[in-house]
Amino acid sequence: MENQVVDTLALGGSVSYDMTIWGLFLEADIVVKLVLLLLMAASFWTWAVIFEKIIRMRRLRGYAERFEEAFWSGGSLDELYEDIDREPQDPMSSIFVSAMREWHRSADRVVGNAETKASLQQRIERVMQITLGREMERLERHMIFLASVGSSAPFVGLFGTVWGIMNSFTSIAASENTSLAVVAPGIAEALFATALGLVAAIPAVIGFNKLSGDLGRYAGRLEAFAGEFGAIMSRQLDER
Fold it and tell me: Does 18 reside within a domain?
């Protein structure tokens, strides 16, 4: 009996495990492997969305600055409209083009008719708001993905951890060996899922908060431009 215990302990201490990340992945249960693959894919896509949004917002701010410089330069709005009518490069230009298009369609027919002028003013404002909403919807695409990863990835990782620990305890019970060399690899595999869940969730939460603030400020900038341009259109209608 004593020799069996010694042999069991010796065997437990002689087994070598690959404790690297790749080794833990290969030794993990199939369910844990699926959880790890899901979290790695979510982490990769999260970083792709974050970098794409940051680069895009930086480019759109540059477009907006150049457009505002041309808009407030004192030049003809009709000439500016002709220059960018076919290919507006940013949401601010799209708002301007949509309002000018509605203006050219109806302005000549409202001279001297106060009721029709008010109707045209409302249509221009409505068109700008619709365009603004459509453009912001495009910019906010994939933001729900970041929010979902940030809130659910830790729980997905926790599920992988719980499943891995259950399998580890089952294997320990089957082998009747509770030495640290036998217990540690299974626990490490299980905790690896939780760690990967946090790796996916933390950048997603930070990126979502940062990008939400950027998008909110940009939306405010577009709304301010739409309000100012609507006031300009109203003054021109009154002059007519």
Answer: no
189 found inside a domain: yes
- Structural domain includes residue 104: yes
Residue-wise pLDDT for 30-83, tens only, equals: 877 888 889 999 999 999 999 999 999 999 999 999 999 988 887 888 888 888
Segment 212-237 shows an average pLDDT of 90
What pLDDT does residue 3 have?
A: 40
Please report which residue ranges of 17-142 form alpha helices under DSSP H. Answer: 21-27, 30-71, 77-84, 91-106, 114-139
Task: List Cβ neighbours of 46 (8 Å cut-off, separation of 6 or more).
Answer: 145, 146, 149, 200, 203, 204, 207
Residue 4 inside a domain? The answer is no
> Three-state DSSP class for 224?
helix
Domain count, the chain: 1
Cα separation, 208 vs 146, in Å, equals 6
| Boundaries of domain holding 189 | 29-239
Question: What percent of the chain is modeled with pLDDT above 70?
Answer: 77
